[in-house]
Amino acid sequence: AKASQHRHTCLGGADYLASGAPIRMMSEQDPAGRPRNLSSTRVLEQADLIALDALPVNIVLVDFKGPAPKNLWANKAHLNTVGCKLEDFCAVILCASDGEVSVWEHMYDEVQIGGNELCMRTFISHYHNHQKTSAETLYKQCAVNLDGKLQTCVMLTLWPLDVNHANVSDTTYLTALLEASPYPLCLFTFNGHLITCNPAARQVFGKTIWLQSDIFGMGERERRGLNLDEIPAWGGSFRIERTERRSAYESMMDALAEPKSSYEVDLPIRNKAEDGTETSWYCRVLAQRHTDPVTAQPIIMVSHQDVTALRNVEAELGRIQMNEETNKGLMAHDSDVAGSLLTLLGQDWDFLRDTTQKNVQLDNAVECSGDTLVSAADMHLRLASGQMAPESLNLGCNKLSALRTVLQKADEWCFDVFELERETDGVPLQVLGWHVLSKHNLIEEFNLDHVKLINFLRQVESGHLDNPYHSATHVADVVQSMNCIITKGGLGKFVGRLETLAALLAACIHDFEHRGFNNDFLIKTQDEWAIDSNDKSPNESHHLSAAFRILRNPECNFLHRMPQQQQQQLRKLMIELVLATDMAEHMAIVSRLKTDLLKRLENPDDDLDLGQDVVSDSLKSLVLQAAIKVADIGHLYAPQQVHIKWSERLEEEMWLQGDVEKQRDMKVSFLMDRSKPGVTKSQPGFVDFVVRPLFETWVACFPDCKMVTENLDKNYEYWKSKEAKPQTPT
Q1: Among all residues, which ones are annotated catalytic?
Q2: DSSP 3-state assignment of 594?
């Protein structure tokens, strides 16, 4: 990990030459009288060849002198690669073209005589089948003692590219891991010497760290005898100080005897700063045994983490786990109604019992306060002692009861999302999103990460601006409409489970980070969103990209357990659905719905069945796109007072865009001039030309959705009656 990528080509034999073993000096001259640059060249003896023979990298010794190079020696790794024995390898007689001869002469002059190092890409020729393997090769001056005869040569260290690329990848990963980690990380050899460490370790332990025992905070007496190569330096007898740190170190070494083993211990660690002051901290030491990708030797990676911080995390995970168990019990008690609200809302819900009677039945009550369950008897005592006010128990239970009542209506066509907004204290999207995903059993079926799903929903809700219309409350309204279309409208029989998940998630993100401006405004002003999307659905394109960026955060990626292919299918569907909410696609989708689905359903000779197993993926996608469009303007079939409130909010948001257009000296868009009639004065026309074609086609395809057109007609009549009445000046 301490090596750069270029150093990979040099590891092995070249590093062996540069090691600190005894060097035998040479001062020969070549036949032409030129001095050989051999003053620092190491002479390889038989023991050295045995060491090189054990390296996993290909090592070859070649004499480039004469008309043709002569193979002197090769290690086992190279012989295995080329597929021959050493005697056969050395007996090969090389013959080549004039071009290759010039290369050999260059190697002789530059490396074997000149002492320079060269690194270049070559081929390893296989002995029997004449195949060639591409390799990166380092050429380095060398001398070898073979059978008592001293001979100058060139050492070739060859890395087959497939092996090299794998090791580069490993080293790059380990380097990034070390450098980026906020925790002290160190790599050691098994004899206790430091290979490398990251900046965090240097900051904690100082720049002089060199022994593995240093990171255990051991003093000189504690570490005696741990490194066997130091024992002769002490001489005589010596006393070893047995401490908790030394015992932990020895236990670690015993535990790491097997490959891929690990060891973990909590210890007080002390370290000395450069100014001589000593500090101590209680930390968790985690050691793992790895294999050096270059030398194939075992190494130890040791990390340190503050125990206090770790235990805070463990306590939080324990709280979440306990809440999940509580939620399961509540779900069983409360049928299918949002038992997971305790996890989702965190601190707001302290009581798990629904008080439907005027007097609280304390004998059956259970209080959840933080991580502590309080029995009914304890509650009696707390009430009697004044530690708990009776009205606080009623308040918590009544609040949960009211929210539960709202969520029970989530499958109904007549739904008041503003009531949900009040009962959830301003987080309707989080609560409803979790509720519908739980109720459809999608979290369990697709093995979604509960905690990360909660984080994702929180991020999505917080990313919605406080616009009059395009807000988190509007998105929650669309999620409810989509849920109702699936459960009551018959869509669930037409599409599969993955499509259901895609539809609900697309509804959750379809207006993420909306700023209250329509696409036409963004394009005319050359907004960044329009530039990024090349003027194609700039709002919708941003909603998608921003939401998917949240999934790149490991803490929010609730899909990480899902198979990759399934994730790709889900993403494709969500993109298609959110892009369909662009009003520019409205008429095209209505037209396709009529021709691709409605006409086939009306044709008695067409064997199209609404069963999901026989419906093509393209038709499912079309139906889902139409469904989210119906849900997106679902307030038009909402209860009248809810619909009117949404219409007024939309009018105010459009006027706000008109105000900005006036400030920029732009032409004010249609219905966006505050001094002229707005959306609420043009609803019948909008319904006749835009809404009704979609809704009537949809209901013709899915008759179970007839409430859509019935409620639409009621709201339509309201606006028509407003047109008929003379307007009173205000």
Answers
A1: 470
A2: helix
